[in-house]
From TrEMBL:
Name the UniProt record assigns to this protein: ABC transporter ATP-binding protein
SMART domains: AAA (SM00382)
Pfam name, any one: ABC_tran
One cellular component term from this protein's GO annotations in UniProt: plasma membrane
Coarse class of the protein's main subcellular location: membrane
Top-level taxon of origin: Bacteria
One MF term in the entry's GO annotations: ATP hydrolysis activity
Keywords: Antibiotic resistance, ATP-binding, Nucleotide-binding, Transport
Length: 293
């Protein structure tokens, strides 16, 4: 296995009784990379990350985190921050006590007040966890994950339940860690977060990878779409396409060239292109397509 990888997963399988949640999953995350692991509900993303985080044993396969087994918690946990969907903080501890406790357990060192400021929880430092709102608990999850500036940061649906201001603050803190060389692994249902930030993306469906690559590489696997309507009596357009509810739909891997050709034809024919829409393939188009693969 490569020493340049922060995470290496080979033929990982995770089972819950008879249910096969993760099936022969293999991927690598390079050191310093922002990697997004996306997929449909029940695709196996969280199960895979729980194995990477050392919270769940694999049924079979090999996983290495920062060159070690994730089960070697004494070696891995001081270098890794984890924000999973369920944290399990003690309801009787205060916010500041919770952050300090995680720091002690993981053997990471930081200033608790500084970290609470990053997470927007300074005013809630003395508040018991049981009195926090759902969004505040997610911010506490984030505070404990980034405590100590870990080399590897795993974020499982980090912005769920957060308002816009809290999301912006979270990403500012993540960007700072990334600038300092940390490796980031993200799962999210907000596809724009992955599209804007990830170096590479792995798309999971039914327990395994269907596609992996940069946003450009993934979106180039599907055609762009030009759609428009023509007035009655107009000639047929110069390229083939489907007709849906009276509108033309043209799929193309040469969007700029075909759009230029279509506009030139409309000008020469003296006809209008009504309700014209054209745009490149988006990540959500690719995401929807994998369910039909």
């Amino acid at each position: 296995m490569s020493t340049a990888a922060a995470i290496e997963v080979e033929k990982l399988n995770v089972r819950y009784g008879d249910f096969h949640a993760v099936k022969d999953l293999s991927f690598q995350v390079r050191r310093g990379e922002f990697y997004a692991l996306l997929g449909t509900n029940g695709a196996g993303k969280t199960s895979a990350l729980e194995v990477v985080a050392g919270h769940r044993p694999a049924a079979s396969g090999t996983v290495r985190v920062l060159g070690r087994s994730p089960q070697d918690r004494g070696a891995v946990r001081p270098r890794m921050g984890i924000m999973l969907q369920e944290s399990g903080f003690s309801p009787d501890l205060t916010v500041k006590e919770s952050v300090r406790l995680i720091g002690t357990l993981t053997r990471r060192h930081d200033d608790a007040d500084r970290v609470l400021g990053v997470a927007g929880l300074s005013r809630r430092a003395g508040t018991k966890v049981s009195q926090l709102s759902g969004g505040e608990k997610r911010r506490l999850d984030f505070a404990t994950a980034v405590y100590g500036g870990p080399e590897l940061l795993i974020l499982d649906e980090p912005t769920t339940g957060l308002d816009v201001q809290s999301r912006d603050a979270l990403w500012t803190a993540v960007d700072r860690l990334r600038d300092e060389g940390s490796t980031i692994v993200l799962t999210t249902h907000y596809l724009e977060e992955a599209q804007q930030r990830a170096d590479r993306i792995g798309l999971m469906h039914q327990g395994t990878f269907h596609r992996e690559g940069t946003v450009v590489e993934l979106t180039q696997t599907l055609p762009s779409v030009i759609s428009f309507a023509l007035p009655a009596g107009a000639p047929e357009p110069p390229m083939a396409g489907a007709r849906v509810d009276g509108a033309f739909r043209i799929e193309t891997f040469s969007l700029q060239e075909d759009l230029y050709r279509l506009l030139g034809w409309a000008h020469d024919a003296g006809t209008d292109l009504r309700e014209l829409q054209a745009g490149p393939t988006r990540l959500d188009d690719v995401f929807r397509a994998i369910t039909g693969d």
